[in-house]
Design goal:
Structural class: alpha+beta
Number of helices: 7
Shape: globular
Number of strands: 13
Mean pLDDT: 94
Distance between the termini: 34 Å
Low-confidence stretches: none
Helix content: 10-25%
Strand order of the largest sheet: 1-2-3-4-6-7-8-9-10-11-12-13
Order of helices and strands: HHHHHHHEEEEEEEEEEEEE
Length: 379
C-alpha cells in the first residue's frame, strides 16, 4: 500500500492509527486529526479507548541508559570508561585497581558507549566490533552482578500537558498598557512543564498573539508559524550542538518611527551545558537574522549576533529563563536591536500555568521596557 505523506496531518503516527482501524473497524481513531497529528496525541487517543491498551512498557533509549550509568561513576571512572570505549587503554589493565563492582560498572559503560558510537556512525575506532568483544570478554572475567542502575519510568508522553495552548494576559510595553490573547496550535516550549516531554526541546507551530492597547487599538502582535529550539547539554561523553530557527511576523520599531508587522527569519547554533545536579542549563548561540518590509531602509535587513541564557528550576513547579540577545544589522537597514529579560513559569496544574515576563529592549535606537502576566491553559 502507498500513502501520501504530509508532515502536519497525514504523517507516520496518523497512518498507524489507520492500520489499527483496519484491524478493528469499530474504532474511530483518525477522525479527530483534521489539521495536525502529533505522535503524543495519537498515543493519547489510543489510551482513551476502553480495553485497547493492556499495559505499557518503558524502554529507555541507549543514550539514556549510558547517561544513567555515568551519573553513578566518579570522575576517574568516567575517564577510564571513555578511554576504553575508544580503544585507548587495555581493558584488563585499566580496571585492575578497582573493586569488582566498580570495574564491572566501568566496563559496562565503556561497552555501551562504544556500541552507541558505532550505531550513530562514529568511525574513530579501527575495528569497533573487535573492541566491543574485548570489553565483553573483560567484563565476563569480573565476578560482579550487572551494574546497570534502576531507571524509574518517566511520565509518558500522553500523560503530559495538552499540546495546544490558550493564554489570557495583560501587561505594559513602551509605556502603553494592553490586554492580550495568545494561541498556540501546538506543541511545547522550553518554559512548559517537562513531564512527558524532553527538557530543553521546543517545537511551536502557529503561535499567534492579538493585543488590545490602551486607547482602543487592537492589532495582531505576532504570528510565528515555526519556532524550534533545541538545547542539548554537552559533557565529556556527549557533545551535541544546540540550535534554533524561527520564522514569522512580529511587531518591531523601524528607523522612521513606525512599528509594522515585519516578516523575518532568524536562527543559529551553539552549545549548552548542564550544571551539577541538573537543575539549570546555560547556553550560548551564534545567530543570524533576515527581515523584509517596505518600511525598512532598502526593504530589508541582514545581521548577525548572539544569544545567551540560563534555564533554571528553583522548585519543581517554578521555572526561570534569563536571557540576553543582540543582532548587528549590517545590510539594508542598519540597527542594533538588543533585548535582556527574565521569564517565569509557575505550574498551577498539569494543564494550567502562570507566566510572568519582564524585558528591556532596544529597537531603532529606541529603548523601552515590556512586562506581562498571563494565565496559560493547555488542551
Amino acid at each position: 500500500a502507498y500513502y501520501q505523506y504530509f508532515f502536519f496531518d497525514e504523517n507516520c503516527s496518523y497512518h498507524l492509527l489507520g492500520l489499527l482501524q483496519v484491524a478493528r473497524p469499530e474504532l474511530e481513531l483518525t477522525a479527530p486529526f483534521r489539521w495536525f497529528a502529533l505522535p503524543s496525541d495519537t498515543v493519547r487517543i489510543l489510551t482513551r479507548q476502553p480495553g485497547l491498551v493492556a499495559r505499557t512498557v518503558y524502554r529507555p533509549a541507549n543514550a539514556t541508559l549510558i547517561a544513567a550509568r555515568l551519573e553513578t561513576m566518579a570522575k576517574d571512572e568516567r575517564s577510564i570508561a571513555k578511554d576504553l570505549s575508544q580503544g585507548r587503554a587495555q581493558a584488563g589493565e585499566a580496571v585492575r585497581g578497582l573493586r569488582p563492582e566498580r570495574a564491572a560498572a566501568v566496563l559496562e559503560a565503556a561497552h555501551d558507549y562504544a556500541t552507541y558510537r558505532r550505531v550513530i556512525g562514529r568511525q574513530d575506532v579501527a575495528d569497533p566490533a573487535k573492541l566491543t568483544r574485548e570489553l565483553l570478554v573483560a567484563r565476563s572475567a569480573v565476578d560482579a552482578p550487572n551494574q546497570a542502575p534502576p531507571l524509574a519510568a518517566p511520565v509518558r508522553p500522553d500523560e503530559g500537558h495538552g499540546t495546544s495552548r490558550l493564554a489570557f494576559g495583560a501587561g505594559r510595553r513602551d509605556g502603553r498598557s494592553f490586554q492580550e490573547v495568545q494561541v498556540r496550535a501546538t506543541y511545547h516550549d522550553v518554559l512548559d512543564t517537562d513531564e512527558g516531554y524532553v527538557r530543553g526541546a521546543q517545537i511551536e507551530f502557529f503561535k499567534t498573539a492579538v493585543r488590545h492597547y490602551q486607547g482602543g487599538t487592537t492589532r495582531l502582535e505576532q504570528f510565528i508559524p515555526v519556532d524550534i529550539l533545541s538545547l542539548s547539554p554537552r559533557d565529556d561523553f556527549f557533545q551535541p550542538l544546540s540550535w534554533r530557527i524561527a520564522g514569522g511576523w512580529k511587531r518591531s520599531f523601524v528607523a522612521n518611527g513606525a512599528e509594522p508587522l515585519v516578516p523575518g527569519i532568524d536562527g543559529g547554533a551553539g552549545m549548552t551545558w548542564k550544571t551539577r545536579g541538573g537543575r539549570a542549563m546555560v547556553y550560548g548561540l551564534g545567530e543570524a537574522a533576515l527581515r523584509t518590509h517596505h518600511e525598512l531602509d532598502g526593504g530589508h535587513s541582514i545581521g548577525g549576533g548572539a544569544r545567551f541564557g540560563v534555564l533554571a528550576d528553583p522548585t519543581p513547579r517554578w521555572r526561570v529563563h534569563a536571557y540576553a540577545a543582540g543582532i548587528n544589522q549590517f545590510v539594508g537597514e542598519r540597527d542594533t536591536p538588543r533585548s535582556i529579560g527574565v521569564q517565569h513559569r509557575v505550574a498551577l496544574g498539569r494543564d494550567t500555568a502562570l507566566r510572568i515576563d519582564f524585558a528591556r529592549l532596544r529597537e531603532a535606537d529606541r529603548r523601552f521596557s515590556a512586562g506581562s502576566i498571563s494565565l496559560q491553559v493547555y488542551f
